[in-house]
Amino acid sequence: MKPNEEISGRLHRLGNSVLDDNSRLYSMVELAAVGNSAPIIMTNLHVPAALDVYLRECLGEEATIWVTKTGNGHSLIGVRLPSGKIYYTVPGTSGLVAAVIICAVGCLFFFIGLVLLPSIFAVAAANRIGAELASRGGVQI
Questions:
Q1: What is the pLDDT along the chain (141 residues), one digit of tens a residue?
Q2: What is the DSSP letter of 80?
Q3: Among 10, 70, 133, 141, whose CB has the most other CB atoms within 10 angstroms?
Q4: Cα(114)–Cα(49) distance, integer angstroms
Q5: How distant, in Å, are the alpha carbons of 3, 24, 35, 73, 121 from that of 47?
Q6: Which residues contact 13 (CB under 8 A, 6 or more apart)?
Q7: Do residues 5 and 76 touch, judged by C-beta distance below 8 A?
Q8: 33 near 67, Cβ under 8 Å?
Q9: Residue 127's CB: how many other CB atoms inside 10 A?
Q10: How far apart are CA 79 and CA 85, in angstroms?
């Protein structure tokens, strides 16, 4: 699976989940991809609470999801419902600025901030996907 991917297919199964303050972590999500005989199974999918209701609405239906790879799994950025409506959420500019500041401060202390560099790229990738979904008429939530 690519680091940032658009996946279309029938949402077959949502695994066990744990609810955090503002997100839900699914142990696995299974989609039957269009034109592919083998299902796509993602483990450790982080779903923002705002998108969780839309993801559940797609269960058993054709849908498209946009995910980005994180250090310990995947993160849901957007979902297209069977009706064609697109909903997405992104960290925004403030999330990117916060990641850069934390990384810069961390670099002052034995280059610990270098470990955080992947998070900056993940936030930037999520913002790029969000901009693309906005251009397709998506609704930011």
A1: 555 688 888 998 998 989 887 889 999 999 887 666 688 888 889 998 889 999 999 999 998 999 887 767 788 999 999 999 999 988 766 766 777 777 777 777 767 666 666 777 777 777 788 888 888 888 888
A2: E
A3: 133
A4: 30
A5: 16, 5, 26, 11, 19
A6: 28, 29, 30
A7: no
A8: no
A9: 17
A10: 8
Identify which of 88, 97, 141 has the alpha carbon closest to the alpha carbon of residue 119: 97
- Give the Cα separation of 76 and 12 in Å (integer): 16
Looking at residue 106, its amino acid is G
CA distance 44 to 73: 5
Q: How far apart are CA 88 and CA 50, in angstroms?
A: 9
16: number of Cβ within 10 Å:
8
- What does residue 99 show for φ and ψ, rounded to 5 degrees? -65, -40
Greatest alpha-carbon span in the chain: 51
Phi, psi of 111 (to 5 degrees): 60, 25
